[in-house]
Q: What sequence folds into this?
């Protein structure tokens, strides 16, 4: 009986150890696990949204003085440089119709280039 | 990169787990390479030969490994630890699915040990077909016997290790293995091709 026992044992061992049902681990699993591993590490700083922190700071009550000065600087820039550009000697538009007024001649000569 | 890979290949599983706890992703990858195929096969055979389920369970067990790596005791074997987790996952799945299989009656153990295993004539066999028949018959066994069978004959665990994984005594492991072998042999006689 011992021989049969050992024979059966070895048979099952050989058969099962060489069994190959043709399955392999999905490659996507390894990628997901690596990502999960990285996220779980406390020493790594991986943020899902890198702009989130900045937005939170922007609308928080921190550094109000800095924010106020920044806003003031922006307003001053647009107001000041915006006025300089608005120069009456340089009209911002052009008209193809030219009107010439001669002092000596009361006749108004209108040269119309509009066609 | 090649030198790093070869370095971790020489590490033991227990060392790799310790490195993993400290955040070493290469160590985790090495563990994955070592155990992914083995665990996938185990889940595949335990969960009704479902590749889809086996893949899901494979991912889940490695997520558990990442979450619980710090709880691993380096003084114990990593293989028994990971397969203990795998076994518990399968056990929970069986409970969830409420599959009723052949339930071993432990009180019959002594009687079974006295019985001889059936004698099957040695014949030329188609091992591939025979293997297929074995696993078909194995599907009818319950989770307790199936897992003991796979851990013993596929993974090569000792009776002691199987006892640790399944949290049962060595005697119970032996009786389950004997019962499974005996029942398989009885059922496979009908195929008249078992090389016992």
A:
């Amino acid at each position: 009986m011992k021989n049969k026992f050992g024979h059966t044992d070895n048979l099952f061992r050989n058969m099962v150890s060489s069994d190959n049902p043709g399955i392999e681990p999905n490659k996507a699993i390894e990628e997901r696990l690596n990502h999960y591993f990285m996220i779980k590490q406390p020493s790594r700083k991986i943020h899902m949204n890198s702009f989130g922190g900045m937005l939170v700071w922007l609308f928080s009550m921190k550094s109000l003085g800095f924010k106020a000065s920044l806003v003031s600087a922006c307003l001053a820039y647009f107001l000041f440089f915006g006025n300089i550009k608005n120069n009456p000697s340089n009209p911002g538009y052009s008209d193809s119709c030219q009107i010439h007024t001669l002092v000596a001649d009361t006749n108004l000569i209108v040269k119309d280039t509009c066609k | 990169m090649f030198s790093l890979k070869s370095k971790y290949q020489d590490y033991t599983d227990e060392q790799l787990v310790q490195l993993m706890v400290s955040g070493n992703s290469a160590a985790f990858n090495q563990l994955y390479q070592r155990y992914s195929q083995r665990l996938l096969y185990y889940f595949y055979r335990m969960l009704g030969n479902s590749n889809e389920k086996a893949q899901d369970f494979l991912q889940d067990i490695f997520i558990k490994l990442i979450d619980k790596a710090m709880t691993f005791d380096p003084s114990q074997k990593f293989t028994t630890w990971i397969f203990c987790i795998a076994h518990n996952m399968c056990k929970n799945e069986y409970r969830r699915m409420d599959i009723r299989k052949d339930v071993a009656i432990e009180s019959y153990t002594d009687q079974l040990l006295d019985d001889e295993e059936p004698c099957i004539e040695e014949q030329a066999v188609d091992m591939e077909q025979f293997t297929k028949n074995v696993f078909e018959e194995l599907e009818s066994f319950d989770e307790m016997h199936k897992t003991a069978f796979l851990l013993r004959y596929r993974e090569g665990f000792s009776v002691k290790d199987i006892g640790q994984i399944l949290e049962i005594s060595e005697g119970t492991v032996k009786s389950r293995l004997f019962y499974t072998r005996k029942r398989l042999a009885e059922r496979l006689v009908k195929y008249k091709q078992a090389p016992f």
